[in-house]
Design a protein that fits this description.
The complex is a heterodimer of chains A (143) and B (129). Chain A has helices spanning 25-35, 45-50, 60-75; strands at residues 2-3, 9-10, 15-23, 81-88, 100-112, 115-124, 127-138. By secondary structure, chain A is of the alpha+beta class. In chain A, the strands form two sheets. In chain A, strands 3-5-6-7-4 form a five-stranded antiparallel sheet. Chain A has a two-stranded antiparallel sheet with strand order 1-2. The longest helix of chain A has 16 residues, at 60-75. Chain B is an alpha+beta fold. Chain B has one domain (4-127): Hotdog Thioesterase (Thiol Ester Dehydrase, Chain A, Roll), CATH 3.10.129. Chain B contains two helices and five strands; from the N terminus they run βααββββ. Chain B has helices at residues 21-31, 45-55, and strands at 10-18, 68-77, 86-99, 102-113, 116-127. Chain B is globular and about 45 Å long. The chains are: A alpha+beta (143), B alpha+beta (129). At the A-B interface, α1, α3 and β4 of A face α1, α2 and β2 of B. β4 of chain A pairs antiparallel with β2 of chain B.
Chain lengths: 143, 129
């Protein structure tokens, strides 16, 4: 158990408040430009369907990047992340003109000094989209 | 099919990639991150995916990048990436197996600034049958 001051006590089992991100086609385009991943399955509905997908899907790495934002909001900034991993279990499906949810929650699984390990859950439309998601963070001072 | 001799070989890029503030800004903006003094934790994928694809597109390797699906991803971040970093990528095929006709390849990519290891990433890529 560690007293981080601002956030109070963080111990194994501490639950991080759930956060919902909203994903739409505009965000996919913005992520494609920012990441350099211009794969057509993330932008072109006809192409996505031609390769057997139900519709345009979000970049797995966009999902992971948003989960990373969830983690760094808890830990106190991008500089705090030491390890971050996850498995792309199901795609986030993004129909035209819709905003779909990415709902993220986490539980503290280990505390060693200032280092905190999180087990993370991420779903979209009730379906788990990131499996085995974990982060190791060095809590920023005052968190 | 992957050439089995490729497993364990490390391919080091000839190019040094210089990270710009505008690249960090664009990535952070997508995530709604207002602190742009360092790159978001997954920013390195912008460099490693393209670099490893280039490095492992050697016909000797035998990896078909057109049928790849991203299976999982891991980052080990030794220090955050900042604007002005000059990073060199080296990629190694750490593991390879065939399951139900799909090829499953684990690629490790290390980003170095000079002699300093900044980020290691592991991407498991599935080549669909």
């Amino acid at each position: 158990m560690v007293d981080f001051g601002g956030a109070g006590m963080i111990e194994v089992g501490t639950v991080v408040d759930t956060k919902v991100f909203w994903i739409d086609r505009d965000l996919l385009k913005a992520y494609a430009n920012a990441s350099g991943d211009q794969n057509a399955i993330h932008q072109d509905e006809a192409f996505a369907k031609s390769v057997g997908l139900p519709d345009v899907i979000a970049h797995g790495m966009l999902t992971m990047a948003l989960v990373g934002k969830f983690v760094t909001e808890f830990s106190g900034g991008s500089a705090t992340v030491k390890e971050f991993s996850g498995r792309f279990t199901k795609p986030v499906i993004v129909p035209a003109g819709e905003k779909v949810d990415l709902t993220v929650s986490a539980t503290v699984s280990e505390v060693v000094g200032n280092d905190v390990r999180l087990d993370i859950s991420a779903t979209s439309a009730g379906v788990k989209v990131l499996g085995m998601a974990k982060a190791l963070i060095a809590m920023a001072p005052g968190r | 099919m992957l050439n089995p001799d490729s497993v364990g070989r490390t391919f080091t890029g000839a190019d040094v990639v210089t990270v710009t503030q505008s690249e960090i800004d664009a990535f952070a903006d997508v995530l709604g991150e207002s602190d742009k003094s360092v790159a978001p934790p997954t920013f390195s994928i912008r460099i490693t995916l393209a670099q490893s694809q280039q490095l492992l597109s050697d016909p000797d390797v035998g990896l078909d990048w057109t049928r790849l699906v991203h299976g999982d991803q891991k980052f080990q971040i030794h220090r955050p990436i900042v604007a002005g970093d000059q990073l060199r990528c080296s990629s190694t095929i750490e593991n390879y197996k065939v399951a139900a006709g799909n090829e499953i390849v684990t690629v490790r990519s290390d980003l170095h600034a000079g002699d300093q290891l900044v980020v290691s990433t592991w991407s498991t890529l599935v080549v669909r049958a």
